[in-house]
Structure formats: C-alpha cells, structure tokens
Amino acid sequence: MTPVLSIQGLSKTYGDGTVALDAVDLAVERGEIFALLGPNGAGKSTLINIVCGLVRPSGGTVEVQGHDIARDWRRARRHLGLVPQELVGEAFETVWGSLVYSRGLYGKAPDPGHLERLLRDLALWDKRRTPVFALSGGMKRRVMIAKALAHQPTVLFLDEPTAGVDVALRRSTWTLVERLRDQGVTVILTTHYLAEAEALADRIGIIDHGRLLLVERTADLMAKLGRKELIVQLERPLAALPEALAELPVGLTDDGHALVYRYDVAHEHGLIAEFLRRLDRAGIVFTDLKTRQRSLEDIFVELVEGAR
Amino acid sequence: MNWRSAATIYRFEIARAARTPLQSVLSPVLSASLYFIVFGSAMAGRLEAIDGVPYGAFIVPGLVMLTVLVESVANASFGIYLPRFTGTIYEVLSAPIGALEILAGYVGAAATKSIVLGGLVLLTAAFFVDYPVAHPLWAALWLVVSALTFSLLGFVIGVWSKSWEQLQLVPYLVVMPLTFLGGTFYDLDVLRPPWRDAALFNPAVYLIDGFRTAFFGRGDLPPAACAAVLAGLCAGLLALAVWMIRSGYRLKP
Fold it and tell me: Domain A5-223, CATH 3.10.129.10 — does that match?
C-alpha cells in the first residue's frame, strides 16, 4: 500500500547555517496516528512546515498521497491540513467567517453543514458569531483545529496541539484525534507530552538535531525498551551491594535503603524468584516490594542523550 | 487557475476594509475634499486657467490619481504585510493557491478599494468644480490599470518590508512626493530646464498626464508614451510580484 506521506532524504539548512533536518526518511500509513517527539529545536516543526509548503527544503523529496510536493504541489496540498504551534488568526473575523475563509482558500465549494458539524464537535457552535479575539486561549486553539479541518483534509498535522491547554481540553483534543482516525484521517502530531504520544499514537518517531533516531510502533517500543524495575525496600540500609547479588542486574539506591532489580518482561524466566531467594539466603530483610514500568520519557531521554 | 481561492482572499480583504469605513473611505475622501475647497473654490479665482481649463478643473485628474496611487500602495502593502506580521499567512502559503491567484485576491481587492475611493473623489469634485470627461472609457481604463499597477507595487513593498516603519517608507516618502511633483497641481510646461527634463524620469508624470488627457482631450506628453510607461510598470511589477511568491522571497525561510 502506498504511504499517505513518504519522505526521503529530506534535509534543511537555514541561511545562518543551522541544520534543521539531516536526510530524514519517513513513511506514514493511511489512518494512523503518528507522534513526532523531540526536544525544542529538534526539527519537528521544520519537517511539518516543509511538507505543508511553508519552508523550502534544501534537499530530498516528499510525496503526499503519491503527489510530489514540489512538482504536483496543488494536488499534494489539497490533502493537507495544518494546525500550527502558535495561536494565530484574523482577530476581528468571526469564528464562522474564519472557517468559511479557510475552506474557500482550498477552492472547496461552501458546505455550511460540514462547518456546523465541526463547530458542534468542537463545542464552538454557540460562539460562531463571536470575533476570534474575544475567545479564550483554549477556544482559539479549537478554532484553529476547526479551520484546519474546514476543507476536509485526509492528512492532518497538529504541531503541539495541547501545549498550554488545560487537562479537560487536552482530553477532548485526544478524543477528537481518535475520532478523526476512525474517519480515516491520518494524524501526524508533535508533542512535548510523552504521555500524550504513549496514549494516542500508533507509532512514534524520535527526532533530535534534525536526525530521526527511531521510528517504532508504540506498543513495540514500550515492549522492547520499556523494561520494568522491581524495587525492594529494605528494613535496614546497606553500605554496599552484597556479593551474593553481584551477578544479577541489581543496583543499590544512593541512600542504601532499596535494591532495584531491572528486568525485561519477555526475558525474565524465573530470575525474580532467584533474586528473592538470594536475598533470603543473605539474610536481607525487606519491608515492601513494588514494580515500575520504564516510561516513554525514560526511553526518550536515553535515546536523545545517547545520540549526543 | 483556482478562482474560488482568489475570490476568497478578495472577499476577505474587502470585508476587512468594510469593518473600518471611517479609516478606509471617509479619511481619504475628506483629504481630497480639502484640496478642492482650498484650490478648487477658495483660491480658484486668483489662479489662472491652464490651456483654457479653469484651475479648479485642472487639478481634478491629478487629485484623483494622487488618491488612487497612494491608497493602492497603502492598501495592498498593508493587506499582505498584516498576515505576515500576525502569522496568518501560513494559511495562504499552505493552501493549493498559485502566485496569480494570490495576486488576484490581494491586488484585486486593494485596487478595487482605491478605484472606489477615486470614484468618490471624482464625485466629491463635482460639488466644487465643473469638469469635462472627454474620453470616459479611456479614463476608466486608465484608472483601473493605474490602480492595479500601484497595488502590485504595494504588494511588493508589503512582501519586502521587515517592519511597520519600512511599510510606511515607500508610500509616504516616495509615492506621495512623486505624485505631488508629477503635475498634480501644475502644468509641466511651467517647469524650467533642467526640472522639466528631470520630471520626465518621474513615472507619476506619465500617469497623471495620461489621465488628464482622458479628461480634457489634450496633455503635455504623447498619449502613447504615457500608455507605454503605464504598461511597462504594470508588467515589470507583475513579474516581480510573481517571482517573490514563487521563490518564497521573505515569505518562506
């Protein structure tokens, strides 16, 4: 199946010499939610902006639904919707007028029914006659999402869609994204909230210094890299790791109050039992046991720091 | 051509002007009216007729052209600079719209506004002075092409400008002085050498003289030369504006 978005060897060097993208290859399938993670200045927005025609690439090719964004840009752009990072909009235009404008720019015939459904879905219908400047920050964010969907794109880019919004709006944005996916829309989002990517994305890409470090299915990534930890709270602190535990993947916390046993669920094969038996034989008494899943945040930090 | 997209930009720009009628219409019409009150009525009796045309009537084409040129540049430069400044230009640049559609929307709207203003100034003049229009179609065509040409200049300035100060620089420090010195208030023949020869390098001279010829049936310069200057300016500015959009000059990093 042809990917909805195909990026090959994409690079961008700005006029001041900053390398924002360095030979990025990426393919996104139809109907998936793809999260692009990376620290500030990693190249996330540059990648999105090149695909949407806002930044000129220095090299490489991008195809949207099989249409090259340089040679066949009109057809390519018809499929794309963009919600940029910054809250921007024609302040004195009404919410309804803003949506009519956005749809018209794409050369689409007026469809008041579609715009009404959008505004109702985003809880903006009551505000349709309100000028954009009179809306709250959260409402402006929703207006921008509605504007991006006004022309019914098949690929939606959300650049930091939940940055600076409250928990309720973040949750409703997630619901909207999942509903769009159910309708066959491909969603590509950038986010700083790793929990958001973990909860929402089918696949995750991690980018830093313009290089795509990893692209994995979220579930595979968590299974492969999301190791677990068994934390054993000790009755009395230890000064050093006992000899009996030296062969095992065990560490002692700095204060000596806990032992941390790191393991991979898929390859555990009874080693936890062996660890506990050795504790017993060594006469080490513990007061509590708990396990912790390594989060996407841990994986992200490890990958980004490892690449530097 | 994606005409629906162009029409969308056009309507949006016209609606923006309609939201501020005092600033968009009343202010320039009032300014022009003051010229007619001072030069057309109060001082007309003390000023000599030029080639048989009463002074009050003589300045009508120049004042209409002054309004059209200055307003075209101001409207078009503001129209494209504002979305650049606020960031909303991303919508236009990411949509499937080509250079000609973008220009049709922004430049068409700016030219429409200044043509309406030019018409209002012409109507206002009728309250103060009597003036003939020897060639109405020529006058209308001249007004439209001049408005489009200077709206293209405004668009170019709006894309080139990096600040509000730069945006104001060309319309008020270049276009307005050139129009004032281009024969709005006087006949070219009153200038002595070398000023008359120098004036021929001012494109506004050709625009005002061509427009005046449409009113009074005669001018200082050959109509063909005036038309060639206007057509050349229009073509040159159109090519420059199209290049700016297609290359992404100051629009796309």
Answer: no
